[in-house]
Structure formats: C-alpha cells, structure tokens
Design the sequence.
C-alpha cells in the first residue's frame, strides 16, 4: 500500500489522514479553540512549538477551515427557527445554480442543503417573531427563482446540538 503525503512548509509531511495526535488536537480545537497553544499542547502531549506547527499544518491542509464564536440566537432576539423544505419547478443545472445564488443573499438563511428525496432543498432559517417569519416566507416565495412549493416546519426547541465532528 502506498501512502500519499502532502508536503508542507517546514518540511513536515502530513498524511492525507491525520494521525492519532492530530485527531486529538482537532478534537480539542473543536471543543475550545480559544485556548493558548501552551494549554492545547499540554492537553495533547506536545510542546507549544510542536503544537503550533501541527495546527498550522492542519490549517494549511484544509482540516481546519476557520475559527468562530458561537452566538446565542435567543439573546440576540432570534426566538424562532424554521426548517423549510423547498421544491423547484425544474431540477436543471441552471435552475439549481439560480436558486443557490439567490439564497446566498438572504441573511436569515443559516444553512441551505441540496437534498435527495422529497424536497430539492432544506433551509434552516431564524426569525425574531411570527411577523418576521411571514415577511421572510413572502421573500422566499417571491425572490427565489423556480420555487414550486414551500413547506415550513417550526422548531419548538433544540434537543441536541453539536458543532464538531465525531473524530
């Protein structure tokens, strides 16, 4: 078996799949990326400089796509969350591209997934209240190209949330 390696700066060759230490480091970064390199290194058994080199290599290899703060939607006034199933009039490449381009400009749409099954897309949206949702629903119906049907489901409460991957 031949193992493919990605050669990165500092002459460190990183396997296309992270090793056990890299996986441990990725788990810790998912849990809390705000910690210092010293603390992260201590947690995974690396010196600060080795930890920093591994983090940089994981970032450069695309395993880490960014860092962000997780905000509390409710405290910011977004009390309602909906999952909206969208069916299009056509599934042509042009129709899908037009829909996907248009949905990018709607800030209340947090996620958009192309689906296999009954719906063409599922959107996860947030709203402040019922009136805000009504305006959003009208905008979705009028603004998104090729929409044949919209079916909305309101989330009562989140039972489980996980932002990290099970690595």
Sequence:
């Amino acid at each position: 078996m031949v193992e493919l390696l990605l050669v990165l700066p500092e002459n460190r060759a990183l396997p296309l799949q992270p090793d056990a230490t890299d996986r441990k480091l990725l788990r810790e970064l998912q849990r809390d990326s705000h910690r210092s390199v010293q603390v992260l290194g201590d947690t995974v058994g690396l010196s600060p400089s080795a930890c920093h080199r591994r983090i940089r290599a994981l970032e450069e290899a695309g395993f880490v796509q960014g860092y962000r703060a997780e905000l509390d939607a409710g405290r910011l006034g977004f009390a309602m969350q909906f999952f909206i199933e969208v069916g299009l009039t056509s599934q042509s490449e042009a129709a899908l591209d037009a829909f996907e381009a248009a949905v990018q400009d709607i800030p209340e749409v947090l996620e958009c997934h192309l689906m296999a099954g009954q719906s063409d897309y599922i959107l996860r949206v947030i709203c402040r209240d019922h009136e805000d949702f009504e305006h959003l629903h009208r905008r979705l119906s009028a603004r998104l190209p090729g929409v044949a049907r919209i079916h909305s489901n309101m989330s009562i409460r989140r039972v489980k949330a996980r932002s990290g991957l099970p690595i």
Notes: The radius of gyration is 21 Å.
